[in-house]
Amino acid sequence: MIKYVLKQNKNKKSLAFGKWYAFPVVEETMDLAGLAKHMEEHNTGFTEAMCLGMMTAMVKCIKEQLLAGKNVKIDNLAIFSVGIRNKEGAKTEAEFTAANNITGVKLRARATGTLSNANLNTSASVRRASNVVVSGSGSGTGNGADSNTIGGNTTTGDNSQAGGSSTTGGDTDYELK
Description:
The chain has helices at residues 32-41, 48-67, 98-101, 117-123; strands at residues 2-8, 20-24, 72-74, 78-86, 102-111, 125-128, 147-149. It is an alpha+beta fold and 177 residues long. A hairpin with a 3-residue loop joins β3 (72-74) and β4 (78-86). The longest helix is centred in the N-terminal third of the chain and has 20 residues, at 48-67.
């Protein structure tokens, strides 16, 4: 069950100004050790320590491959890749320098296989969170009475990818060809 809170778009420059949107409530962030324990409890045939060791090595190797300029696909999870954060464009190709025009790199992850957005939409259910304290302006709390399945028979709110969040300046993704 994915819980959500409602937030109103307060960005006056946005076309969605004043509209309300659902945002997921994250109750916990599980680290590798927690995931290893969870995997052991699912009778994987491996101990918690073995699961943790394998996943720790996997993370190290994924980072190594990304820094070598490769994408890494983990079937039914995600394709990991590196993106570039640009400061601003140069007026000409000759004027472009990494120091002046690139602020850094970032990690990207795109869902793939059985974890794709389409598959999540057919199996996810949502419920408005009750008594949730969310920091920041425009947060809301719910009464817990609103529950729907997304992608099934009923849909709640605006579940478009635009979702009501807006970004101003800073991060712009560019396709490198």
